[in-house]
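Bench notes, afternoon.
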Amino acid sequence: MPTHAPNLLLASSSPARRMLLERLGLPFRCQSPDVDETPLPEESAVDLVRRLSEAKARALQAAFPDCLIIGSDQALQLDGGILGKPGRHDAAMTQLKRLSGRTATFHTGLCLLNVQANRLHLLTEPFTVHFRDLDKATIERYLAAEEPYGCAGSFKAEGLGISLFRRFEGRDPSSLIGLPLMALVDMLHAEGISVP
């Protein structure tokens, strides 16, 4: 354990990100930032998640001047475009049909902002997913079971969504769920926080 408890703030209301951060065994608080997540014209998935991760952390810096703020965002890149959160059943069905039998890359942005020192750590973690061939009945069963309408790519990798993949490639499987813990540990170490 660190000699003093870090004043960590997770800039997110995501239960999945909260669950991941709990794995590190450090005390933290959560606060949802008010950030417009609309992609800019011609913005790549990498640029989008880097921009939004930093924006989420900076959106809370005035209210939490003594914190290390963690911001994260995720986008799914397919055919050079971005697949966002579907929001509803028919859009999720369309996304999963497009992903059937395909390979897509998730880009997860991570930002750690030391507000007091005005020091920023920022990176993007890629993770490639190879989808199984998905027929309409399989997609319908999956959507009925998990209703992943608030998830980029229309699935929850931390749950039944894992059944939609043939295999995946990447450094850190936690990035697929939305918070790259290995990179976060590196950032925390750079700020003098020991994990474990």
